[in-house]
Design a protein that fits this description.
Blueprint: H1 13-20, H2 29-40, E1 47-51, H3 57-66, E2 69-74, H4 77-90, E3 94-98, E4 111-116, H5 126-136, E5 137-145, E6 148-150, H6 156-166, H7 175-187, E7 193-203, H8 211-220, H9 227-248, E8 251-261
Parallel strand pairs: 1-2, 1-4, 2-3, 4-5
Antiparallel strand pairs: 5-8, 6-8, 7-8
Length: 277
């Protein structure tokens, strides 16, 4: 991509990640991918779709852990090209396509597992997106939703800056808000339902003491730009990383696994919370 130094300060986070080839991980990283693979029991016969595959970390590691048939889709063509290179370098048999989560180019009831990490936060028409996830999922298959949500209200200036960074308005949603939007969609369908069968909750660690070292590591691997352009990229990238670290102090995330069924189970009365003794 040809880009002028003066335009770098206007780039959003997704574009920066694609240009710098940051290996973009889901919340919880490889451990969360392992957790989902174990809980859903996917194997070599499973067909998996990742929505918003970015630079390919999740799709590739699902394939490496399970040997499943994995496809990743993303709207950013630069990220798709980087994901293909990453797959080739890791000897992972994964396909990557330039496509949107609101218009998935596959037929109904096609996948055993559909993975949507936090990408749904950035999609304006969430109802349409979840309708598409539901449509391409097989009966008995699993929808993985791993959203970042707010445990306490952030300062408005941080919320505004994060919205600008990702190119869409960020709402102060709770975990229950995410569960409700997924389940309320399936309540309107006549061709199946979704059941929340598994959930685990996490909070983020403050990483401010490691940020400078991390940025230096990522920037040290960037090739093809002159020194001044690299410095402009580094400044813009550092802005995003420090902003997100501030924002995540107010956030948590959950691994939520929904199963597509003909009918949802009757509502539970006596629910429980896992504790450590």
């Amino acid at each position: 991509m040809n880009i002028k130094k003066e335009d770098i300060s206007k780039l959003d986070y997704s574009t920066i990640v694609g240009l710098l080839n940051e290996i973009n991980r889901p919340s919880g990283g490889i451990k969360v991918i392992q957790e989902v693979c174990v809980q859903t029991r996917i194997d070599t016969q499973s067909k998996v779709l990742e929505i918003g595959s970015n630079t390919g970390f999740t799709s590739i590691n699902i394939a490496l852990l399970t040997k499943a048939n994995v496809i990743g889709i993303d709207v950013n063509s630069e990220s798709i090209e980087n994901a293909k290179k990453y797959a080739n370098n890791t000897n992972a048999d994964v396909k990557f396509l330039n496509a949107s989560g609101t218009q998935i180019p596959f037929h109904d009831n096609h996948f055993d597992l559909v993975w949507s990490s936090n990408v749904s936060s950035f999609i304006t028409d969430k109802q349409k997106a979840f309708s598409e996830y539901f449509r391409v999922l097989k009966f008995g298959g699993y929808l993985i939703v791993i959203p970042i949500y707010y445990l306490k209200k952030p300062p408005q200036n941080i919320l505004n800056q994060v919205s600008g960074a990702v190119g869409t308005k960020i709402n102060i949603w709770s975990k229950d808000d995410w569960i409700n939007i997924v389940l309320s969609h399936s309540e309107k369908k006549h061709d199946g339902d979704l059941e929340l069968i598994y959930e685990s909750d996490y909070i983020y660690n403050d990483r401010k003491d490691f940020i400078k070292e991390y940025i230096d590591i990522v920037m040290g691997e960037v090739k093809g730009f002159d020194k001044e352009t690299l410095e402009s990229f580094k400044k813009r990238y550092a802005y995003f990383i420090n902003l997100f670290n501030k924002n995540l102090k107010y956030c948590g995330f959950s691994v939520m696994i929904f199963q597509k069924r003909l009918l949802r189970d009757q509502i539970e009365l006596f629910r429980s919370t896992k504790v450590s003794l």
